[in-house]
Amino acid sequence: MTKLKFYNGLREIGGTFVAVETDTTRCMFDFGFANADIIDNKVKVGDKNWAFDYVNLGILTPMDGIYDDETAAKLGVKSFNKDDKKNFFVISHMHIDHMGGLGMLDRGVPVYMSSESCTLYKHLAKMRDVEVREHENCIGIDYGKSFTIGDITVTCMQIDHDVVGACGFMITTADGNICYTGDYRFHGFHRNITEKFADDAHNCDVVITEGVTASFDDIDMLSLEEPENMGNTEELLQEYMKEKSETEKGLVVINNYNRNVERIHNLINTISKAGRKLVLEPEQADYVKAFYPEDKVNVLIRNTDNRMTSQEKEIKERENCDIDSYRISKLDFDYTPVTLKELKDNPSGYVLQQDYRHIYDLIDLKDAVALYVHADGSPLGDYDPSFKKFHMVLDKLGITHEYKGTGGHSRPYYIRHMLDTIEPKVLVPLHSFRPEQVQSLKAGKRVLPEYGQSYELSGGDLKLVE
Ligand SMILES: [Zn+2]
Ligand SMILES: [Zn+2]
């Protein structure tokens, strides 16, 4: 018998946690943070207690077969070592709301993801850009390839989202198949990939889809017509950045999300055509070079003593140096260093890529900055407690700023287009504040699960069992 069990992330954006379970095997997805607003970095979490604390705060799901012995005992669940089932995860992509919890799993849990996600994850870990610690038992699967654990077979299906490596999964058991979309869009560089995903999933038994853009306005999804244009696309952002680089007199700063590697790869070229150089933060440079080793990168050096001999690097590392110096010490490719002073001396020669974490660099640069472009970087919107502070800083420094993001999620019409193309027997929308607004006449039926509910999959139907 195959059961689908639903936990976190059903009526919110983040922390999706679903288990597909047979008598012997349990496949789970994803493992990011739900209820993430509750996290406050000013509050100390015990080193050994991360998973325990986060389960109690509703950020992670309490579950058999995924935590270490000590944590599981405290939570009153079976640990990974003591559970009889073959437990494993599949992770759709490297956004924190889908993978932030990986460092809190028992170290033995096998975690499958696309090969590209696996590459990115290893670089995130190398740059100390993951929560708690690296989960080492991660296994990369090429797009289109399948693997089998116990009596569950999973196929990794590429999809387009605003992060490298995004995929969905077709999960097959003796009782039927379940398609999990992960997050997706049709307005990125690769609409064809998302279209192919829909075609390949055609007629599956169950589709579990994200519904992020159905969260905000009142929408009658069934009556939506195809929009005349796609709105802000990745291509339009490139054109915008080219135009601003050509017309602005001073330094242009872009706050992007550094895991959208393809955007930055293209931007290197776009900015150079406009006669400027794009300067990257060290971790961003590392992520780009991991996928585009032929790219030539300029890296921001905050202080000159970061240019060290290997011996000096070792010492600083042992001494637990600051994270930026650490990251620079980890760059294992050729790059052109650019200092803050060089940006100030020649502001029209550069575009600076900058994470919100470094916004105080603008205090030094403010007279040089002509325009600050907010393009899908953190803090994303007013639901983020930092959003107000972010604007306060820019206003205080008198820096002109524009929002020019594309978003990673399908506009509502295209969610329906996805579902109309797939024509599933059962539709399960989640990862949305208003999943009830996600509809398709081509779906046989729709299920809106509640936390903790189990459904039995058989004969192409889902029936509530407990
Ligand atoms: Zn995402
Ligand atoms: Zn998401």
Question: How would you describe this structure to a colleague?
Answer:
- This protein has 466 residues and is α/β, with parallel strands linked by helices.
- The chain is 27% helix and 22% strand.
- The protein has two domains: 2-224 and 409-464, 4-Layer Sandwich (Metallo-beta-lactamase, Chain A); 234-403, Metallo-hydrolase/oxidoreductase (Rossmann fold).
- The protein starts with a strand and ends with a strand.
- The strands form three sheets. Strands 6-5-4-3-2-1-21-22 form an eight-stranded mixed sheet.
- The mean pLDDT is 94.
- It binds zinc ion (ZN) (2 copies).
- Residues 95, 97-98, 183, 431 line the site of one zinc ion.
Name a few traits of the molecule.
eight-stranded mixed β-sheet, seven-stranded mixed β-sheet, binds zinc ion, Metallo-beta-lactamase, Chain A, 22 strands, alpha/beta, 14 helices, Rossmann fold, 466 residues
Topology:
Blueprint: E1 2-6, E2 18-21, E3 25-29, H1 50-56, H2 69-75, E4 86-90, H3 96-99, E5 111-114, H4 115-126, E6 138-141, E7 146-149, E8 152-158, E9 167-173, E10 176-180, H5 191-200, E11 206-210, H6 234-247, E12 251-255, H7 261-273, E13 277-280, H8 282-291, E14 298-301, H9 310-318, H10 323-329, E15 336-339, H11 340-345, E16 350-353, H12 361-365, E17 369-374, H13 387-396, E18 401-403, H14 412-422, E19 426-430, E20 445-446, E21 454-458, E22 461-464
Parallel strand pairs: 3-4, 4-5, 5-6, 10-11, 11-19, 12-16, 12-17, 13-14, 13-16, 14-15, 17-18, 19-20
Antiparallel strand pairs: 1-2, 1-21, 2-3, 7-8, 8-9, 9-10, 21-22
The protein binds zinc ion (ZN) (2 copies).
Residues 95, 97-98, 183, 431 line the site of one zinc ion.
